[in-house]
Design a protein that fits this description.
Length: 251
């Protein structure tokens, strides 16, 4: 007698795949799934700036759930901006529509690095954690896994040094090669901050976390520089957020 297996929920499918365990199908999610492709999101963007949406838990939760409700994806990617924790570390910035982050005082020396404060997520980004808690409650039926994320230290450093989006990030790469002590100090500060940020997301209920590294920032790096200056920091962040921080599947 053959007994049919129960179909997995979206969360079960996502978590099984992340653990390299058998799943009934390949899970589907998109990094920027809560965005301009959705009419309801565009309506909200006409009413609120992006940082207001990201810092208002009820609106943020609503946007995060849109792709789950409309597309049936297996993961609910937290609607946020990669610059939120950087702002909480003391960086004055704004997000300009159709351009991206503008840093009011770019960091290009050791004094700038030393002005960065240690990140205290519960105090400085409580809205992110409140959103995650609300999502876990809303998705308690297992429709989708809650996916948190942060920007990779390299990507964040590029923005902080350049002061705005760039085609080639020449200032950032120049500082990396000519001022290695400043670069290393900046990457250490950012990596430590992102580790704390991701750990706080996991503690709040994120079932999966990912590090978002913009290909545009590192596209022209040589392979050896990529390994030495970029990949190592992202690897350190992900290692520190794996076990024992990996949240077990609900039973």
């Amino acid at each position: 007698m053959t007994v049919a297996r129960r179909a997995m929920t979206g969360a079960e499918r996502m978590l099984a795949t992340c653990r390299r365990e058998p799943a009934d199908a390949t899970p589907v999610w998109f990094m920027r799934q809560a965005g301009r492709s959705l009419a309801r999101y565009r309506t909200l963007r006409e009413q609120y700036p992006i940082l207001t949406l990201a810092k208002t838990p009820e609106l943020c939760k609503q946007i995060t759930l849109m792709p789950v409700e409309e597309l049936g994806v297996d993961g609910a990617v937290l609607f946020a901006d990669i610059m939120l924790p950087v702002e909480a570390m003391g960086v004055s910035l704004e997000i300009q529509p159709d351009l991206g982050p503008i840093i009011h005082a770019p960091i290009r020396d050791m004094q700038g690095v030393e002005r960065l404060r240690p990140l205290e997520p519960e105090e400085s980004v409580p809205f992110v954690l409140e959103t995650i808690r609300g999502l876990r409650s809303e998705l308690s039926d297992g429709r989708a896994a809650v996916i948190g994320f942060c920007g990779a230290p390299y990507t964040l450093a590029c923005y902080l040094i350049e002061g705005r989006p760039s085609r080639d990030y020449a200032r950032a790469k120049s500082l990396m090669l000519r001022e290695p002590a400043v670069w290393s100090a900046l990457m250490d500060r950012l990596t430590d901050g992102m580790i704390v940020y991701l750990q706080a997301q996991v503690a709040a209920g994120a079932e999966v976390v990912q590090v978002f590294d913009s290909r545009g920032c590192g596209a022209s790096l040589t392979p050896c520089v990529h390994r030495a200056r970029r990949r190592s920091t992202s690897a350190r962040a992900t290692r520190r957020c794996s076990r024992p921080w990996l949240r077990p599947a609900a039973t």
